[in-house]
Specification:
Elements: H1 11-14, H2 18-21, E1 45-49, E2 61-66, E3 78-81, E4 87-88, E5 91-97, E6 103-110, E7 117-121, E8 132-134, E9 139-143, E10 147-152, E11 159-164, E12 167-182, E13 194-208, E14 212-223, E15 226-238, E16 243-251, E17 262-276, E18 284-289, E19 295-299, H3 312-320, H4 332-335, E20 346-353, E21 356-362, E22 370-375, E23 381-386, E24 389-395, E25 404-409, E26 415-423, H5 444-454, E27 469-479, H6 485-496, E28 501-502, H7 505-511, H8 527-549, E29 565-566, E30 571-572, H9 588-599, H10 602-617, E31 630-631, E32 643-644, H11 645-648, H12 651-660, H13 663-671, H14 678-681, E33 700-703, H15 706-721, H16 726-742, E34 751-755, E35 760-761, H17 780-790, H18 794-807, H19 811-818, H20 828-842, H21 845-856, E36 870-872, E37 881-883, H22 889-906
Antiparallel strand pairs: 1-7, 1-28, 2-6, 3-4, 3-7, 5-6, 8-9, 9-10, 10-11, 11-12, 12-13, 12-17, 13-14, 14-15, 15-16, 16-27, 17-26, 18-19, 18-23, 20-21, 20-25, 21-22, 23-24, 24-27, 25-26, 29-30, 31-32, 33-34, 34-35, 36-37
Helix pairs in contact: 7-9, 8-22, 9-10, 9-22, 12-13, 15-16, 16-18, 18-20, 20-21, 20-22, 21-22
Length: 911
């Protein structure tokens, strides 16, 4: 039960579980492979892999491709060819539409390909072996043509069996959860745990071939009469593949209260399979990934290194994983003593930090463990099986999201057991309790005083983890025999960097998606442009390096970075209130995705991908009263009492979703469609209001900046995707745009009274000037650029252009236009991109000049900034490395976005 005090559980709570329980995937019924193609105006697009190596050992890849408005109709079919012109099977479906109904984004799934691929209008090739789904029996049977998985419809077994041909490779795939009901903070006490098993609540087939099939399983972990910790599992199968992918999401709904030792502490969280073992113990093989593509390569009963030699060929065959000749052909001094060679049935690799893993083994339960090695960072890969078949498995971001663990048990028996621990049971329990006792901040006045010293907006019982989520990715292979070292290395590489097809930057720019004109390919044709490009590269590289140096890793933390730096301690302010974890403050998500869109760089994509996975899950609530709201930056990702739309902003998820068609991120975006209801539950301005205010369903105070930008982004995305509520969403996009445009001062009015039932803003009777430096820096500018391109509404355009024109204007200019100035403002460099956008849209040369003036000579980073790092070592810092003490994440996000957008919009008008 939630520790959140229950107010009114209105519709917000009704929608609370949407992301965890609602299953809808665009194209689920529209996927196609070979219907008739029709002529279209879109040019062919060359797709390429983010990293070298193509698809490798991965089961398949799915990519999103944008199209210019009017180029294709939604029923357009597509063909894919390789560099030799050979047809490559592809499954295609629409994932977004332009307002005129034409195709905006299409998704394309492939299960083969190693080089560049060309996508064009045409008839899709059919796979040699289609993926098929049979829902008619007691299980859902998915066949790739190579392997078949039987998926349970109820009970605790998610995957009843995985077979290859007539051989069962794995069985009883299930979820395991270990709960520890109490944490002992001292060095005495008895640790008790209890195990919960995942129980299926609903199973949905979202796609069923011919190239790609997707099955979603929702449920909770259950023991006896208690069910908790909701899960959402998606299983991905591709035609002709011997493997499948699992996307695993949990949403925390337990109780952990600060100051109390009892609660719902997760001690272990994993995915478990049984693996039938049919071969002689000397033909059974264990493979566990170490650093890079390194592997522990052993047999359950090893015949190498013995006092007596069975023969070089026999030893080499066992090390390679090949079937050994009959023991009668060996040196009989070995054959007659085989029963005296130990069988090693259990193995454990434990990665409790980002800096070290240990590997150990034992013969069986009840006997001592033997150290088998260790290292720094394990790949998260393993294999158990034999010459007649075996099971490979891997957990993506294994060491980055520590503590993680791989277990193999009972490999010497008829059935081995494999567990991939997303949270290692050897680690400390998952302690999500709020980190301090409130320090007497029991009134709003005291809380505001606390904000003024640590920048933390504290409020009792608001720092709760109830409703946050985390998604993990796993891969599994059903091998016909123990794979060769080369094939195992390819599987390891697929786990470490899941192969991803990508559309090139020029196609994104040509299609005018994500704000037409806001980004362009890097251009170093002039010294001024080259210098800005150097600065952009410096900032990205610095943050990537800081993640490593500062060890910003861990199950809940990986993907995020810190907000501000403490120059005295030579340390980011990880323990100082609102200066700690960044939580999307001022839109670093958009900066990174814009950096990728214009460059196509794999390293930027992977960095932004990790950030999106984190911020969309951990920094946002998915259950409870605050479902649909995110948490402001803080020491813990959920610590701050500012629960707001600006962090849950769908804009931050759109990039990854449309580039990859990722269904989980699609869930998150759809779940936000009704998040306007949250304003009835929680007033974001409650601590600073001077006038009495009670949330009224027909007159909710909603700001036109950080509030509306989050709401309209969700509505626009639902409209574009033609989701289940797209007509309502479209109406709200249009009605709220009209409402803002109709205000006496447009966006400068600041906020309006919103009617939840009609989706409209009341038009104020008197003009008000209420402008915040934060209003436009949580995606409003990028979103308005999209809306203005999509919707013909001149009045809205003018209202936005006026806001752009006057934010960076002089106070005299503001007063002349609105009757009063905007007061004290900040973030002028970041707002220079608004100047640039309005200059281009209105043709105002003076505004264009001001854009570059504010970019170069206001606040934020300047050409006089150091643009370098300084080396750090002991005793100044914990770990040797570097610092750029002048860097802050706010300035980085704003500089990055202003630089990218100003170069694209006004690169030909630089001073």
């Amino acid at each position: 039960m939630s520790p959140i005090p229950r107010r009114s559980l209105l519709k917000a709570a009704a929608v609370a579980g949407v992301a965890a329980q609602f299953s809808w995937a665009p194209g689920a019924k529209d996927a196609q492979a070979a219907p008739r193609a029709e002529a279209a105006a879109g040019d062919p697009v060359t797709l390429d892999w983010l990293e070298d190596g193509g698809l490798g050992a991965a089961p398949g890849s799915t990519v999103g491709v944008p199209w210019p408005k009017g180029a294709f109709q939604p029923d357009q079919t597509f063909a894919l060819t390789d560099t030799d012109g050979k047809a490559v099977p592809v499954q295609s479906w629409p994932i977004a539409y332009w307002p005129d109904g034409s195709l905006k984004w299409s998704a394309h799934a492939v299960s083969s390909g190693s080089g560049k691929l060309t996508l064009a209008a045409g008839d899709a090739a059919t796979p040699d072996k289609n993926v098929t789904v049979d829902k008619s029996g007691g299980t859902i049977d998915v066949s790739t043509g190579v392997i078949t998985a039987k998926i349970g419809k109820n009970g605790s077994t998610l995957i009843k069996s995985v077979t290859r041909g007539s051989t069962e490779i794995a069985r009883n795939g299930r979820l395991v959860l270990i709960r520890q009901p109490e944490i002992e903070d001292g060095d005495q006490g008895t640790v008790k745990t209890e195990r919960f098993d995942g129980a299926i609540g609903a199973v949905t087939v979202e796609q069923e071939g011919p190239v790609r099939a997707v099955v979603r399983i929702d449920g909770k972990h259950r023991k006896g009469g208690r069910s908790w910790l909701p899960f959402s599992i998606r299983l991905y199968f591709y035609a002709g593949a011997d493997s499948f992918r699992m996307v695993h999401t949990i949403t925390y709904d337990g109780t952990q209260e600060p100051g109390k030792a009892s609660g719902d502490f997760i001690r272990g969280l994993g995915v478990r399979f049984g693996v039938p073992m049919r071969d002689a113990s000397y033909d059974r093989h264990i493979r566990i990934g170490g650093e890079g593509t390194g592997l522990l390569r052993e047999a359950v009963k090893g015949i190498t290194g013995l006092r007596r030699d069975p023969g070089a060929a026999v030893q080499a065959a066992q090390y390679a994983g090949r079937k050994l000749p009959d023991p009668s052909t060996w040196d009989q001094r070995v054959t007659t003593r085989l029963q005296y060679i130990p069988e090693w049935g259990d193995y454990t690799l434990s990665q409790l930090s980002a800096d070290g893993f240990t590997l150990r083994k034992r013969t069986k339960k009840g006997y001592g463990w033997i150290g088998a090695g260790g290292g720094r960072r394990a790949s998260g890969f393993g294999y158990v099986g034999g010459v007649s078949g075996g099971f490979s498995f891997g957990l993506r971001d294994f060491w980055e999201k520590h503590p993680a663990q791989l277990d193999i048990r009972d490999a010497h028996t008829d059935e081995a057991e494999v567990t991939l621990w997303l949270w290692s049971p050897e680690a400390q329990p998952m302690d999500l309790r709020f980190y301090h006792d409130g320090m007497g901040q029991d009134t709003y006045a005291k809380q505001l005083e606390g904000l003024n010293i640590t920048y933390e907006d504290y409020e009792p019982k608001f720092g709760t983890p109830y409703g946050i989520a985390r998604t993990s990715e796993l891969l599994f292979w059903a091998n016909e025999s123990t794979p060769t070292a080369e094939k195992l290395a390819a599987q390891v590489e697929a786990v470490r960097a899941l192969p991803q097809l990508a559309a090139p930057p020029r196609q994104l720019i040509k299609a005018k998606v994500f704000g037409p004109g806001l980004y362009s390919e890097p251009d170093r044709s002039t010294p001024a442009k080259a210098k800005i490009e150097d600065h952009l590269d410096f900032l990205f590289t610095y943050y990537k390096d800081q993640v490593e140096q500062r060890r910003w890793y861990g199950f809940w933390d990986y993907g995020d970075f810190m907000h501000s730096y403490d120059t005295v301690r030579h340390q980011w302010r990880y323990d100082v209130g609102g200066y700690a974890w960044d939580n999307s403050e001022l839109s670093p998500d958009i900066w990174l995705w814009m950096a990728y869109l214009r460059s196509g760089r794999a390293d930027i994509f992977r960095f932004a991908e990790a950030l999106t996975r984190h911020t969309g899950e951990v920094d946002v609530y998915h259950l409870g009263d605050w479902a649909g709201l995110g948490t402001r930056h803080g020491v813990q990702h959920y610590a701050d009492s500012a629960k707001q739309q600006r962090i849950a902003n769908t804009t931050y998820r759109r990039y990854y979703y449309f580039l990859t068609a990722d269904e989980r991120v699609g869930d998150l975006m759809h779940a936000n469609v009704d998040s306007d209801e949250t304003f009835l539950v929680l007033d974001p301005q409650r601590k600073v209001r001077t006038d009495p205010y009670t949330p009224d369903r027909h007159a909710l105070s909603i700001g036109f900046g950080t509030d509306w930008s989050g709401l309209v982004s969700a509505w626009l995305t639902e409209w574009e995707r033609r989701g289940p509520k797209w007509e309502k969403a479209k109406a709200r996009v249009l009605s709220t745009m009209e409402g803002i445009a109709a205000q006496p001062n447009g966006f400068v009015q600041g906020s309006g009274l919103y009617d939840l039932d009609t989706g409209k803003f009341a038009v104020a009777s008197t003009p008000v000037v209420s402008v915040s430096h934060l209003s436009a820096v949580f995606g409003l500018g990028e979103l308005c650029a999209e809306l203005i391109d999509l919707v013909d509404m001149p009045e809205f355009n003018q209202a936005y252009f006026d806001y752009c024109r006057y934010f960076n204007a002089t106070k005299a200019e503001q007063k002349a236009r609105y009757g009063s100035d905007f007061g004290t403002l900040l973030l002028f460099q970041g707002h220079s991109r608004l100047d640039a956008y309005a200059a281009v849209r209105t043709g105002d040369a003076a505004l264009a000049r001001r854009a570059w003036t504010k970019f170069y000579s206001s606040d934020g980073y300047t050409e006089a900034s150091p643009w370098k790092t300084e080396k750090l070592s002991g005793p100044l810092t914990l770990v040797a490395g570097s610092e750029a003490a002048w860097v802050s994440s706010n300035d980085t996000a704003l500089y990055g976005l202003a630089a990218i957008e100003n170069l694209a919009l006004l690169g030909d008008k630089m001073p």
